[in-house]
Every structure is written in C-alpha cells, then in structure tokens.
C-alpha cells in the first residue's frame, strides 16, 4: 500500500495486451542522491547544495528512511527568521517533514500530476519501505521529453504560482543591525 501523499505504482501493461511497458520514473530519476541527517547543521546541508549544484537535499534517518527534505529556501528562511548562522541551526529546524514521494514504478505523467498538485519541483523516490532510492526533478522529465514541452510549461507555471496563504502572510520583523 502506498504511503500517504505518494503516487502509486501503475501496472506495466493491461492484462492480455502485448504493448510495450510505459516509461517509469526509475529510468528518469537521479539514483545517487546526496543526503543529510536531521541532526546535521544547516551549514552542512548548504555545503552539499553548493558542492553538488542542487537546491534540495533529502533528509534520511540512519537506516536510510526518508524523514524530510530541506531546500535552499528553507535554509535561508530559517536563518533569517531565527536570526542565527547556518552552523548554529540543525536541519531538523528547517526541513519539511510532510514529504510527497513516489515509487520507482510510477509513470512520469502521474509523477508530474503529483508535482503539480503539491506544488513541488522534485519528488524523492522511495522503495516500499520508505528508503530513498533516487530523486525525480522537473529537469529530469524535461531532458527525457516526458511529457511534452507544453505539459511541462503548464506544470511549471502551476507549481511556481504563489500560494495564497504564503502570499498574504506578513514578512517577519527585521532584527536591528548590530
């Protein structure tokens, strides 16, 4: 049974048909993903992002189970709102724990619909036990030509639109300069 918020695997072919199997996420995803732990410093997560040219780092427990993700925006906002340096804060203070995921067997169109629905640019790919096995990005879909350019453009437009709650939220008060 799929985890809450995850895309479920689709059968490769309908019973009794000889059609070729559709493209699957496992063929498009990035399999070797840099990760961090909840207790790591945000500075460590920022270093991983810089060294590997990524904007998102999955957060895993010691057993490899995905427990969250942290983005470059999460790091900036946490440091700003808490008035602290990245080396003073842990990843757990900024990570998103309610992560939408998919499994390796999901078709790309379903993954794209999930990205649109949850307004995310990347989907961690997990096995049946919740262990991270890769990450799928909009760029991965675009490079593979899955789905077409117009669908990707529409999805990106939808994903990047301001969320009503966030757009209406007041900015945090600035700390006085020292």
Keywords:
12% strand; 178 residues; CBS-domain; two-stranded antiparallel ribbon; 34% helix
What does this structure look like?
- The chain is of the alpha+beta class and 178 residues long.
- The protein has a single domain, classed as CBS-domain, CATH 3.10.580.10.
- Helix content is 34%, strand content 12%.
- It is built from seven helices and four strands, in the order H-H-E-E-H-H-E-E-H-H-H.
- A two-stranded antiparallel sheet has the order 1-2.
- Strand 3 and strand 4 form a beta hairpin.
- Helix 4 packs parallel to helix 6.
- The chain starts with 24 loop residues before the first helix and ends in a 10-residue tail after the last helix.
- 26% of the residues are buried.
The description of the largest β-sheet is: 2 strands, antiparallel
Mind telling me the CATH superfamily name?
CBS-domain
Give the SSE string.
HHEEHHEEHHH
Helix/strand-derived category reads alpha+beta
CA(first)-CA(last) distance: 54 Å
Query: Which CATH-level-2 architecture?
Result: Roll
Q: Which bin fits the share of residues in helices?
A: 25-40%
Q: How many strand segments?
A: 4
Categorize the overall geometry: globular
If helices are DSSP runs of H or I spanning 4 or more residues, what is the number of helices?
A: 7
CATH class bucket: Alpha Beta
């Amino acid at each position: 049974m799929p985890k809450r918020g995850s895309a479920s695997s689709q059968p490769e072919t309908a019973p009794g048909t000889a059609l070729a199997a559709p493209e699957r996420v496992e063929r498009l995803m990035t399999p070797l993903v840099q990760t961090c732990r909840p207790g790591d410093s945000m500075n460590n997560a920022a270093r991983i992002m810089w060294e590997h040219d990524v904007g998102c780092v999955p957060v895993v427990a010691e057993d490899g189970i995905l427990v969250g993700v942290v983005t470059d925006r999460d790091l900036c906002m946490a440091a700003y709102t808490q008035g602290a340096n990245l080396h003073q804060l842990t990843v757990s203070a900024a990570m998103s724990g309610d992560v939408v995921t998919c499994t390796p067997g999901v078709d790309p169109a379903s993954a794209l619909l999930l990205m649109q629905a949850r307004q995310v640019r990347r989907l961690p790919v997990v096995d049946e036990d919740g262990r991270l096995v890769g990450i799928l990005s909009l760029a991965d879909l675009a490079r593979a030509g899955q789905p077409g350019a117009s669908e990707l453009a529409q999805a990106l437009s939808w994903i990047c639109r301001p969320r009503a709650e966030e757009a209406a939220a007041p900015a945090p008060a600035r700390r006085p300069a020292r």
